[in-house]
Design brief:
By secondary structure, this protein is an all-alpha fold. It contains 6 helices and 2 strands. About 70% of the residues lie in helices and about 0% in strands.
Length: about 170
């Protein structure tokens, strides 16, 4: 099981599928499904050892259920980091924990408040990024945004007046 997971992880992190490689994605999907069956058998042993509270985890779910669809759309997952996925999950758990107020010292929050808080933070981060882009364009500096997978900074001198205006309006 572990050797196959290593092979799948290597494919997900390093392989780039071309447009004419749909069959290879199908084969990869079948390998994941076979591994899923073996993992379920292994999971029964783990459940016997650790009880019913043991889950598959987000990475296992993402890999088994969504990899083939993501590969068909993006042709590679090497530019996408598992760290980002896990960090997002950790933040969502923290927000949920704070919002539901299980310690009894305050009024419990609704799902609307949880989601509003989560997306308000995301929108504020996006606004900060637009503000940084606007400032870099104004000063003629290079701009870097870690959220989109750019490997390096890009020159703002190549941005058209329309792009600069759009960034200005978004800020």
């Amino acid at each position: 099981v572990f050797c196959k997971w290593r092979e799948i992880a290597t494919t997900m992190r390093h392989k780039v599928f071309d447009d004419d490689m749909e069959e290879e994605i199908d084969v990869f999907d079948l390998e994941i499904r076979q591994l899923c069956y073996e993992c379920k058998e292994w999971g029964f042993c783990l459940r016997d050892l650790f009880g019913l509270g043991l889950g598959t985890g987000d990475y296992g779910h993402l890999t088994v259920e969504h990899t083939s669809m993501l590969l068909r759309n993006f042709r590679s997952l090497r530019d996408y980091s598992n760290q980002g996925f896990e960090t997002s999950h950790k933040l969502q758990k923290q927000i949920y924990s704070r919002a539901t107020n299980h310690d009894g010292s305050g009024e419990a929050s609704s799902l609307d408040q949880i989601l509003t808080h989560h997306y308000a933070e995301r929108l504020l981060f996006l606004r900060l990024c637009f503000r940084n882009a606007k400032e870099c364009a104004r000063k003629g500096k290079k701009f870097y945004f870690r959220g989109c997978g750019w490997s390096n900074t890009i020159s703002t001198k190549k941005w058209s007046a329309t792009h600069k205006r759009w960034i200005d309006v978004m800020d």
